[in-house]
Write a structure and sequence with these properties.
The chain is an alpha/beta fold. The protein has two domains: 221 residues, Rossmann fold (3-Layer(aba) Sandwich); 210 residues, Class I glutamine amidotransferase (GATase) domain (Rossmann fold, 3-Layer(aba) Sandwich), CATH 3.40.50.880. 31% of the residues lie in helices and 27% in strands. The chain has 13 helices and 24 strands. β2, α2 and β3 form a beta-alpha-beta unit. It is globular, with a radius of gyration of 23 Å.
């Protein structure tokens, strides 16, 4: 039978309108009511989902039309959100901003595929009647359209009735609340986006204030009523607990924190027991590992500590010498190379498991969606294996690798990903659900290593 999944999306005209703040406020307010809320992010963003997870106590997932087609996405959302009272989706960039000059793979696409009611977050600063023109334009730019309400951000309480009357009269859309100017909850940014949830000072206090404010200024009951108008999704059975067939070490700390919950979940379905470790603070790797996964993050911010943790680096080199399978993505790739030059101009020795050095630049390098095609057999699959991914990095390497061909949606191609023995690493962030055979191949390599390890 179809699965009822109440769901709502918060989107905006563009970045900077306050989607993340408004989403955090709504999540906090709903959770304070005792509801189970599932956070979702449209697009390949790691940082916003960290805030979702911190507030809801549940891993946040991604709804990205480049990574998944319509039916698999609907099944993912249904399975993950089945036990939640509401699924809240945060859009990326502007509502219609997709690949290149199109709306493909945009928040709009997600809203259409999943039949999600959409609330448009608007910061009307410096606008009067033009705010209505903005909302009306978004309302009519594409049809069909599921924009069904407006939320106002960063306005004075005394202006709320002015904008509500204006917008409801001119657009016919209900205005379902606002957030006042709250400088004390301002979230800081850096070169890859917002500070991560673990770095924000007094985060719990800020989340509490947002939730309490939203409970007073947002019409939560009406928002939930809209969420419940979303039609049912396919009924998908939950994942079952799988036997633990190998121990996979996963780097997780302030330097390595960019992981898809979907990736870790699929690795567990392949038999992985996830064992977390910190290259920043750990004295050595955990015992009895059968594979290593170094995800992306911010190694460039912690180069003196990462390079100075010589005991950990030595334990990594010893274990790598045994032929253990190692997967590295973006920041993890940089860490596995010989050295990295930071913003201070100094070169910091790192793991040295792969050739090449890297340097932090001032501009994004080769950023965006990519389809990867294996040019040779690797621990991720045979030559010809395809998987979707994205790149988003300011650093570049002298040795980017050639194990895969990366292709942008516009047709541009380049070589990517190094492989050496049982090590494979590169700048692309892989999205395992786009080809579940890839994590299975990696798991098989880990299980083979375990079998050999235990036979010695």
């Amino acid at each position: 039978m179809p699965q009822p999944v109440p769901r709502i999306m918060l989107s905006a005209a563009g970045s900077g309108a306050g989607k993340t703040t408004m989403t955090a406020a709504l999540l906090s307010a709903l959770c304070s009511r005792g509801l189970q809320v599932q956070g979702w992010k449209c697009g390949p963003d790691y940082i916003d989902p960290m805030f979702h997870s911190h507030i809801t106590g549940r891993p946040a997932y991604h709804a990205d039309p480049f990574f998944l087609s319509e039916q698999p996405m609907a099944e993912l959302v249904s399975r993950v959100s089945a036990d939640a009272d509401c699924a809240v989706f945060e859009g990326a960039m502007g509502f219609y901003d997709g690949i290149g000059q199109t709306d493909q793979a945009s928040a709009y696409t997600v809203s259409q595929w999943l039949k999600i009611p959409v609330l448009l977050v608007v910061n009307p600063k410096g606008m009067g009647c033009s705010a209505a023109a903005l909302c009306h334009g978004f309302q009519t730019f594409r049809t069909p359209n599921s924009i069904c309400g407006i939320l106002l951000n960063d306005i004075r309480s005394g202006m709320y009735n002015y904008y509500r009357e204006l917008l409801e009269r001119e657009t016919g859309l209900p205005v379902l609340g606002y957030l006042p100017h709250l400088p004390e909850v301002q979230l800081e940014s850096r070169h890859l986006g917002l500070m991560t949830a673990g770095e924000v000072e007094q985060l719990d206090e800020k989340i509490r204030l947002l939730g309490e404010t939203a409970a007073e200024t947002l019409e939560l009951s009406r928002i939930m009523e809209l969420a419940k108008t979303a039609p049912p999704l396919p009924d998908v059975p939950p994942y079952t607990t799988k036997p633990k067939l190998f121990r996979l070490g996963v780097a997780q700390d302030k330097a390595f924190c960019f992981t898809y919950a979907e990736n870790l979940e699929l690795l567990e379905q392949c038999g992985a027991e996830l064992v977390y470790f910190s290259p920043l603070t750990g004295a050595k790797l955990p015992e009895n590992l059968d594979g290593l996964y170094f995800c992306g993050g911010y190694p460039e911010l912690y180069l003196p500590r990462l390079s100075g943790n010589t005991a950990f680096l030595e334990s990594l080199r010893r274990l790598a010498g045994t032929g253990i399978p190692i997967l590295g993505e973006c920041g993890g790739f940089l860490y596995l190379q010989r050295s990295m030059t930071g913003k201070d101009g100094k070169s910091y020795p790192l793991a040295g498991l792969l050739p090449g050095t890297s340097r932090l630049g001032e501009r994004l390098c080769r950023f965006g969606y990519v389809t990867l095609t294996a040019q040779q057999d690797t621990i991720l699959g045979k030559a010809g294996t395809k998987i979707r991914a994205h790149e988003f990095h300011y650093a570049d390497s002298t040795e980017n690798g050639s194990a895969f061909l990366a292709q942008r949606p516009n047709g541009r191609t380049w070589q990517a990903v190094q492989t050496k023995a049982q090590i494979i690493a590169g700048f692309p962030h892989l999205y395992f659900p786009s080809n579940p055979e890839v994590p299975q191949h990696f798991a098989d390599a880990c299980k083979a290593y375990r079998k050999e390890r235990l036979s010695c």
